[in-house]
C-alpha cells in the first residue's frame, strides 16, 4: 500500500455493528509512500496507522 499526504483513508469496522472510520493522511513515515501513516480522523483525533486488509486509501483531488 502506498499513500501521500492529503490522501483519505477508510478503516472498515472489523466486527458487526462497528462503524467505519475515515481520516486524512497528514504524514507518511515510511519510505516511498509506505506505512506507517499519521492520520487525522474525522472526529479530530490523530493516530499512527499501519493499514491492514480492512483499510482503503483514496487519492486526494488537487
TrEMBL record:
Residues 1-57 form the DUF1918 domain. InterPro entries: DUF1918 (IPR015035). This is DUF1918 domain-containing protein. It comes from Prauserella cavernicola.
